[in-house]
Amino acid sequence: MTGLLSTAAMLFPAALLAAPAGPGAAPPAEQSGFGFLGLVTAVLFALGYMVSLYIHPYRKCSSCGGSGKHSGTMFTHSFRTCRTCNGSSRQPRLGARVFGVLKDK
């Protein structure tokens, strides 16, 4: 049993293992958690990502590497239009598809 307790003490900080003194016990003065600063950071990150989706809704096609052409495997000098991007060499980013911010050009 002591081996299990010592393993738990190594894996978890002492603040997580300490139980409150009773039903009316006050919470610890300093709690480690997400907090206000983390919330503000997450909101700013989300806003920045949405702005970047409106500015750049497309990414380079992963199948053709942005060339718009698919080379043959046996006859490498021949090519056809990429079926993934239909020759446009661009694919919509995941966030642009999810949030529907694609531009019609």
Task: Describe what this molecule looks like in 3D.
The chain has 105 residues and is α+β, with helices and mostly antiparallel strands. The protein is 39% helix and 11% strand. The chain is built from four helices and four strands, in the order H-H-H-E-E-E-E-H. The chain has helices at 2-11, 14-17, 35-55, 94-99, and strands at 58-60, 69-71, 79-81, 90-92. It has a two-stranded antiparallel ribbon with strand order 1-4. It is elongated. The relative contact order is 0.12. The mean pLDDT is 76.
In short:
It is built from 4 helices and 4 strands; from the N terminus they run H-H-H-E-E-E-E-H.
Average pLDDT, rounded to a whole number, is 76
The gyration radius over C-alpha positions equals: 27 Å
Strand percentage lies at 5-15%
| Biggest beta sheet attributes | 2 strands, antiparallel
- What structural category do the secondary elements indicate? alpha+beta
